Structures are given as C-alpha cells and as structure tokens.
C-alpha cells in the first residue's frame, strides 16, 4: 500500500466501500449480528450447563460488551474505517498483532456461519423429518445469495430479519408474564408459579459457580456481532452521528433484549428440561400448551440463523478485505466490483464456510454446533480485546500530541479503566475454558489460540519488508491535524524515516 496524500476525515480508509447504509440499517445490523441461533437455540445448552443463574451470566456478558463498544465507538467516530479490527490494531498496537487479530476474526465468523446453518437444519429436521444437513446446505445457499447483493439490499434484508426477532422476543416476554401469574397454565396447575423453578432442585447454580465461569465464552458468542457497528463505519453516511447513537442505544437494547427474556424463561420453565434439540423458548411455550406460539418461536429461530449468518458474513468479508488492503492477505482480495462489493473476498470466505459445512456431514449436528460456537467465541473475543487495547493506546497518543478528551466527538467514559476492566474479564473467561471437564472446550481453546499465533509469527518473521513498510506508512496516513482540522499538532512525527534502520529500531516505532 502506498500513501501519497494526507488523509482527510471523509477519506480515512473507507476502503472504497459504498457508503449507502442508513442510521436504521446500522443499528439493526448490530442487533441482527448478535441475536442468532446461539441465543434461541444455544441458550438451552447454557441453561443445562449453568442452571437458572444463566440470566446473571447474560448481565455480566452485557457489561463486557458495553465496555468494549464504548472503546469501539471512540475509535470509529475519530477514524471511521471498514475493517476496524485490522486498521486499529495496525495503527495503535502493531502490524503483526493486526494480522493475528484479523485472521482470528475472519475464522470466528467462518466458524459461526456454518454453525447457524447447522442450527437451522436442526429446527427444520424437527418440522419436516428431512435430514438436517440438507437444510443446512439450503441455508448456506441463501446466505451466499444475500451477500452477493449490493450493500443497500443487505441493509434492507437485515433490517427486516432483525425486526422479526425483536418482536418475537417481546411477545415471549408478554406471554411469560401471563404464565407467571397463572393467567395461562395449559396442563400445569392453575396458580402463580412464583420462584419454584428458579430456586428449587439445586438453586441458582445447581452445577456450582465454576460452571458459570467456564461457560462464559459459549455465552459471549451471543453478543458477538455488536462490533459490526464499527466494521460498517466505513459505509456509514454520517459516522460521528450514527456510531454514537448505535453504541448508546443498541448496546442497552441488547442487554434488555437478552436479559429480560432469559430471566422470564428460567422463571417459567424447569432448567432440567432445557436441551439443544429445539429452541428452549419454544419448548417453554409448548410446556404450557401454547403450541402455536412455540411453532412461531421455532420459525423465528430460523430467521435468526439467516439474520446472524447474513450480518456475520458481511463483517468477516470486510475484515478480510481490510487484511488484503494492509498487505496481510493476497492483494486480489482487496479488489471491488462496480457495485462496491469485494467479490473476491466474498468468494474466498464462502469457500471456507462451505468447506466447514462439508466436514460437518461427518459429525453429529449438536456436537459440531457447540464446537463451532466455542471456536467462534474464543477468536471473536481476541478481537474485542484488541479493540480495547487499541483504544488505550489511542488515548496515549492523544495526550502525547497535545490534545485532550474534549477534542473527541465521542469519548469512552472512564478510560483507560473501562477498557482495562473489559480486557481483564475477557482474559479470565478465555483462560477458564481450560478448567472445563469437556475436552471440546480445551480443543477450542487450542485451535483459537493457534489461529492468532500462526499469522502473528508468519507476519513478524517472514514478512519483514511488508512489516517495515507498514511502520513507515503508519507515520503518514493518520494525522491529528486531519482528525481535528482546527488544531495543528500531528498524531505522528513528520520526521523522515531512514529506510536503512535496523528492524529493532523500526519495531520500536510501534511502542507508544
């Protein structure tokens, strides 16, 4: 990549993407990216693992994602760019970290997209009796079609799919309240339920508190996708207005949309009956004779698989495109067609998704589903950590160059402590995977760590020329005088770089 001119705020590395996403698209994209089958279907596995206290785990997960999104919001408003993980990690941590994070994020969604297809297959097999793998292939074909459409079509598709899920969850809460007070009871006793299901037969944590902690990565997969707000920043028409609104409003809605339905779920449904064979929300409604509502909920789970996989592929394609623009992936993946779609990156990602889906034919659907979720959660969390880390370094440079928090159009409150808290909670969640008795958790930890370490080492030790060029270009491409036109200080030193410096001297430029 060669930089010849100063980069102005409206030009900051949008990568050539078509800026056609509207405010309502951005906010619903964020919701669509997280309310997937991992919530409607995977919550059953979490309840089985943790017990009724699963709603407390969702609260903790909401805190983690809120802190992370504050960091992302500050970066995305100051420097709106598609493929934010790669760009921010490269500029504010180190190019090799950006390479590792970028490929980890790509793998995170490559693993999650077929997991959504498998989830759709599980639901459809229950309805039709036709092998779930066949349905998984059908869903894969639909996702392929959606992401070959132009960006405007993507936004409209995701908007309506996300809206269906939100309405369904609100409907579930209303029915749950009626069930809780005994107004709907089916074959169950005609009386208020009280707290019987919440505290009896083992209490809130029947499997012990460690189950809550070691299962946190599996739960946090449900919040994965919120960062797509930042990935879409390069395609937002007005990032400084749209992104803060998305951070403030969508993140709070996420917490309420997740926590409240799950709380009512464990109030009205015995945790021992939760499983992975159907949506646990549908099972809860069926338990009280509401077969019609259970059927609708299962249908909504299908739309959730399409919505989450759709927005997930959107995010990972743009992340891969950013890797290519940074010289960390083949150059051909950085090219766009006349519609502003990175077709090569789309095809490459789809090939990987279909490969995983093909391997899935030889494994049990439920086991494969959980394995893919764990791998996706681990690698996705590495990317969240990088966002918080990059925001901490961004603030350091802000201060060094003579600027203050008041110069930012959106500032993460409590920085750097909010970012440090988020990093600490996420690192603890990752490490505790090793203490789970199920070997699939440990295997997912190993594969996830390898997915970061291998590209990190390859870029650091076998791509020295490209890495050196990154360090040099980083001195030029983003200046505070461009981010804050009324001020004159530069983010980076304008002193010429000696191309004959040793690698060690160049490496020191990353450490701010």
From TrEMBL:
The keyword Transmembrane helix applies. It is found in: Membrane. Gene3D superfamilies: Amino acid/polyamine transporter I. Residues 25-454 form the Amino acid permease/ SLC12A domain. GO terms for biological process: transmembrane transport. Signal peptide: none annotated. Pfam families: AA_permease. InterPro entries: AA-permease/SLC12A_dom (IPR004841). It is a multi-pass membrane protein. The keyword Transcription does not apply. GO terms for cellular component: membrane. This is Amino acid permease. The lineage of its organism: Bacteria, Pseudomonadati, Pseudomonadota, Gammaproteobacteria, Legionellales.
């Amino acid at each position: 990549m060669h930089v010849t001119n100063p980069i102005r705020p409206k030009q900051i590395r949008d990568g050539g993407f078509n800026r056609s996403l509207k405010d309502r698209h951005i906010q619903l994209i964020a919701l669509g990216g997280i309310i997937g089958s991992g919530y409607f279907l995977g919550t059953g596995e979490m309840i089985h693992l943790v017990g009724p206290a699963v709603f407390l785990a969702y609260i903790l997960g909401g805190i983690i994602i809120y802190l992370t999104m504050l960091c992302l919001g500050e970066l995305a408003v100051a420097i709106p760019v598609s493929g934010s993980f790669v760009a921010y990690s490269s500029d504010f941590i180190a190019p090799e970290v950006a390479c590792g994070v970028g490929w980890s994020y790509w793998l995170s969604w490559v693993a999650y997209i077929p997991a959504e297809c498998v989830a759709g297959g599980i639901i459809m097999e229950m309805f039709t009796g036709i092998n779930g793998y066949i349905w998984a292939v059908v869903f894969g074909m639909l996702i392929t079609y959606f992401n070959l459409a132009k960006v405007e079509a993507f936004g409209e598709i995701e908007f309506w799919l996300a809206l269906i899920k939100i309405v369904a969850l609100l409907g579930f809460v209303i029915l749950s309240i009626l069930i809780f007070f005994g107004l709907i009871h089916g074959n169950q006793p005609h009386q208020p339920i009280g707290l019987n299901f919440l505290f009896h037969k083992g209490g809130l944590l029947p499997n012990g508190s460690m189950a809550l902690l070691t299962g946190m990565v599996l739960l946090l997969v449900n919040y994965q996708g919120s960062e797509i707000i930042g990935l879409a920043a390069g395609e937002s028409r007005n990032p400084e207005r749209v992104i803060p609104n998305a951070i403030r409003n969508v993140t709070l809605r996420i917490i309420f949309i997740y926590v409240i339905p799950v709380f009512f779920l464990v109030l009205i449904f015995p945790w021992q009956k939760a499983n992975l064979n159907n949506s646990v929300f549908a099972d809860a409604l069926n338990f009280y004779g509401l077969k019609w509502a259970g059927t609708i909920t299962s249908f909504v789970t299908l739309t959730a698989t399409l919505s989450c996989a759709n927005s997930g592929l959107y995010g990972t394609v743009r992340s891969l495109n950013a890797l290519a623009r940074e010289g960390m992936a083949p150059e051909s993946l950085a090219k766009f067609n006349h519609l502003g779609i990175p077709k090569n990156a789309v095809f490459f990602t789809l090939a990987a998704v279909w490969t995983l889906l093909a391997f899935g034919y030889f494994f049990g659907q439920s086991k494969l589903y959980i394995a893919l979720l764990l791998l996706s959660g681990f690698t996705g969390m590495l990317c969240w950590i990088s966002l918080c880390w990059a925001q901490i370094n961004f603030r350091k440079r802000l201060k060094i160059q003579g600027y203050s928090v008041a110069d930012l159009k959106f500032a993460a409150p409590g920085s750097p402590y909010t970012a440090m808290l988020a990093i600490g909670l996420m690192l603890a969640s990752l490490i505790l995977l090793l203490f789970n008795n199920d070997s699939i958790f440990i295997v997912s930890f190993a594969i996830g760590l390898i997915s970061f370490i291998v590209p990190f080492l390859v870029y650091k030790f076998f791509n020295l020329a490209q890495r050196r060029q990154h360090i040099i270009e980083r001195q030029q491409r983003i200046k505070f005088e461009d981010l804050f036109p009324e001020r004159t200080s530069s983010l980076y030193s304008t002193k010429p770089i000696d191309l004959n410096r040793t690698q060690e001297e160049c490496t020191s430029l990353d450490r701010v």
